[in-house]
Amino acid sequence: MTTQKHSISRRSVLAGGAALAGSLAMPGLLRAAPESIKIGVLQPVTGNLAMDGAYGKLGAELAIAAINESGGIKSLGGRPLEMVFGDARSNPEAGTQEVERMQSDGVAAVVGGFASPICLAASQAAARYDLPYIVDVGVSDQIVQRGLANTFRFSPGFGICTKTAIDNLVRINKDAGTPARTVVLVHEDGLFGSGLAKLMAAELPKYGFEILDTIAHPTPARDMSNVALRIRSLRPDLIIPSSYYGETVLLMRTLQQQRVRPKGVYAVLNGAASNLRFVKEFPEAAENIMDCNHWYDPRKETAQALVKKVADAGQQWNYNIALNYTAMQFLADGIERAASAEPVAINQALAASTFASPVMPYGTTRMENGQNMGAAPVNTQVQKDTIRVIFPDEFADAKPVFPVQ
User: Fold this and answer.
1) Do 105 and 177 lie in a common domain?
2) DSSP class of residue 279?
3) pLDDT exceeding 90 applies to what percent of the chain?
4) What is the model's pLDDT at position 135?
5) In what order do the strands lie in the sheet with 109-112?
6) Which site from 24, 34, 127, 247 is most exposed, i.e. has the minimal number of CB atoms within 10 Å?
7) Prior bond to 403 cis, omega within 30?
8) Alpha-carbon span 132 to 136, nearest angstrom
9) Phi, psi of 89 (to 5 degrees)
């Protein structure tokens, strides 16, 4: 019995020695991987906004991968980011439910939402927990006018976009000899379209434009025949649509079929006018549409590399990819500055952020009441089956085609 006990003990010692030797040879085995920081990504990937939500999710995924590949959050020992995804299902109620679930899952912040109603509801839900909420697109200025210390919009909203759109339209029209004087506004009847149409209707007359009519339509819309007929009877110089993807495509195709040919279509924050899917699938209907919208900065190598990465993955480019990619970078920079994954500390760091986007055509971040005042839209135009930047001049790669007849 003594010999057996001695034998077992000796084997245990030898095994322990071998394990120790192995661990000394590979010390990395003794170090646990740094704990990930959970980030909620909220996008509508089902329902009528599913296409936009899929683009947003892709942008967030690409950003998280890039952040982790570059070493994670270095001020926290290289902790990586981990996505906790939530499907907003194209409605505010579902967005709120997903934020509640993400909070229970222990996320440090939430990014996304896409549509203004979803962003309004979801950011309000996040505010109950001081949970940082970074808006990717949602342009309604109500989002950042409620005094919520947890809500940050990195991209420009209604006010900034409308002012830029009007300034650029006035310049385009003047440079062309002022051919456009009359306007019809077409908008979806939700928070996004109604708010934008109201602003345009109030501001454009100050610059000599006459608003002939403001036409609302539902989302989703199945038929635009009556809208097109009304526009045809009014014969405006300009049509300004503020709608989501499906409705804009339907409107432009219907106008084409009914041979309605205005001097220009000048969209603002449009769901299709800056979307390559529309350009590729319906090139004739899309040709020469101008848009004042979110877009990447074609001068920046990081932006060019992101566009290439999306193409190499077999995906279509969309501005929502760039916005979510950048929103996630903005959040990661805030966590880095805070050196903390605690929501309150992250909120403070984001509010004081001076992040400079390597993708978007923005200046240095400057937050005022949750709005990045360094953000601005650009003007694009569909020209010969692609999308060109026509304003601002410092990085435009084409001149405006206006009027088109």
Assistant:
1) no
2) H
3) 82
4) 98
5) 81-87, 37-43, 109-112, 133-135, 151-153, 371-372, 367-368
6) 24
7) yes
8) 13
9) 55, 30
